[in-house]
Design a protein that fits this description.
By secondary structure, the protein is mainly α. It folds into two domains: about 1-100, no CATH class; about 115-235. The chain has ten helices and two strands; from the N terminus they run H-E-E-H-H-H-H-H-H-H-H-H. It has helices spanning about 5-20, 35-55, 60, 75-90, 110-120, 130-145, 145-160, 170-175, 180-205, 220-235, and strands at about 20-25, 30. A two-stranded antiparallel ribbon has the order 1-2. Strand 1 (about 20-25) and strand 2 (about 30) form a beta hairpin. Helix 1 (about 5-20) packs antiparallel against helix 4 (about 75-90). It is globular.
């Protein structure tokens, strides 16, 4: 089965979901949580297929994002179907297929499985849309050796996530979060090392001579994964 066929199979399943959505008088929503879970699974499957075929920076994958809390389920399904159908048309017009990465290829800064887990969890009060997009853009920056952007994006994530763990700022997570010692050490590494590196790239004015960062300077992906894993665990 070709990628186009697989995407059309997903679109057909989405069309079946679309017919099951009822009108509740305000928003058109899913009948039950099983339909919502199926929708999220289908969207993730489509995004994974497109990431593999066109690369993670392609416009179609980037637009298969999650709608804000309170948005219409019907409009979300229709938007997802439109993106998938557009991607199929693009592939049929002869878009170059990007080879799948070999075992020796550079790892993603945020593991694909961790991203999938973030997309799957739910928060009744807080919207993870921006966090997920920050992680996606972080992977794009890292895969293209944009190491100053990597540092800045990780710093942005640190500033963004404290309410998800019940804190006002990341310093409270690094110093006062009720977790194991290993978690605290990873968070302090992000707070004391990554934040200083990012601040340098953000705030140092132009100088007579410069040197650009290399991958080891911004390689905090293990500590960040510990943080994202704790967010997933907390929201389950």
């Amino acid at each position: 089965m070709t990628i186009e066929d697989e995407l059309l199979t997903i679109d057909k399943a989405l069309a079946e979901l679309e017919f099951r959505i009822r009108d509740d008088g305000a928003l058109r929503t899913f009948r039950d949580s099983n339909d919502e879970a199926t929708f999220n699974r289908l969207r993730i499957e489509a995004k994974t297929l497109l990431d593999g075929a066109l690369g993670i920076a392609n416009n179609f994958s980037l637009n298969l994002h999650f709608s804000p809390i309170g948005s219409s389920s019907l409009s979300a399904v229709q938007e997802c179907r439109g993106v998938i159908q557009g991607a199929v048309n693009h592939l049929r017009r002869g878009a170059a297929i990007v080879p799948r990465p070999s075992s020796g290829a550079k790892v993603q800064f945020v593991d694909i499985s961790r991203l999938a887990a973030l997309r799957a969890v739910k928060s009744s009060k807080l919207d993870l849309t921006r966090l997920i997009r920050l992680c996606e853009e972080l992977n794009i920056a890292y895969s293209n050796d944009c190491f100053m952007s990597v540092a800045m994006l990780v710093r942005a994530i640190l500033d963004h996530i404290p309410p998800l763990l019940g804190k006002q700022n990341f310093a409270e997570i690094a110093n006062n979060y009720a977790g194991p010692i290993s978690f605290k050490k990873s968070m302090q590494n992000l707070q004391l090392s990554l934040r200083n590196i990012a601040d340098a790239h953000l705030h140092i004015p132009i100088r007579e001579k410069e040197v650009l960062p290399m991958a080891p300077q911004v390689d905090f992906h293990k500590d960040l994964d510990v943080l994202l894993g704790e967010i997933v665990r907390t929201l389950k």
